[in-house]
Amino acid sequence: MSYKYAVACLLSALSLTAHAQPPQHVVGANLGYGNVSYDVNNSHDEGDMFLGDVYYRYMFDHNFGIEAGYKGAFNGIGSVLISPLTEITDVSYGGPRLSGYASYPLGAGFELYGKGGVTYYTLSYTFKNNGQSKEYDESSLGGEAAAGVAWAYKHFGLNLEYNYAKNSDFDSGGMMFGAQLRF
Q: Taking the model in full, what pTM does it have?
């Protein structure tokens, strides 16, 4: 009788340990709105942008992980409205990024998190000069940092973050809202 009891306790303990293991894989997407400031063709300009991001994150443990993703942005409402008045139009950027991820659990599924890493973004724009337009693409390495709050329940989560990116051609910041699947 005690042998069966010991085996039952051992199996229960192992199943609890397996259940307590946090998901290691996270796939998500973010959408947001922000601003951009850029220096191109000896001109400085600013505008607003729609932001989007898709990513995969591998969690080493519950608090630390590494994230690879692709982020893109294009003209916002204000930029579209004033584009007939400016020399630089049709501004967008996009490219891959690789970031470290750290989180601090608050309880009830909530956590604060931060991430920072390296980016390789291509800034695309049209430059109007003397009635002629020319399209440009400029790529460079840069950096990115983000901080936010996330909530997760089982395999689904939501997040709200502020994201800042900078490279040699531009800097951009904005609020992003996203969803994620954990498995």
A: 0.83
